[in-house]
Amino acid sequence: MRERIQKIMELEQLTASKFADAIGVQRSSISHILSGRNKPSLELINKILEHFEQVNADWLLLGKGSMINDNNGAGSTTDLTFKEDPPNGTTGVIPKDVRPVKIVVFYSDNTFEEFISGH
I need a surface site. Which of 22, 24, 65, 93 has the fewest CB within 10 A? Predict the structure, then answer.
């Protein structure tokens, strides 16, 4: 994730200090993340996504998809370029007999809901 944060800084032409100021965190927080000392907290990631609305959350969190959201403000679900291929021996297609067992929805106010299926 450190590399993706650096790419945002490069795209926006911000130094680490100006990036920290822009998202409202201590400058040392960004310095420690960029040096590899610390990993970004969920709060920091949320601040990045709130300030840089054009950044695709899937890309920032998972390294999947494009860096920038499509025009309607949401990450593109039809034209994603994935960084990794499916694991060996799989096609990347979910078999018909496999169902989701848990879905987690994160909201902009830092709350979340879990939906667990009744097997």
Answer: 93
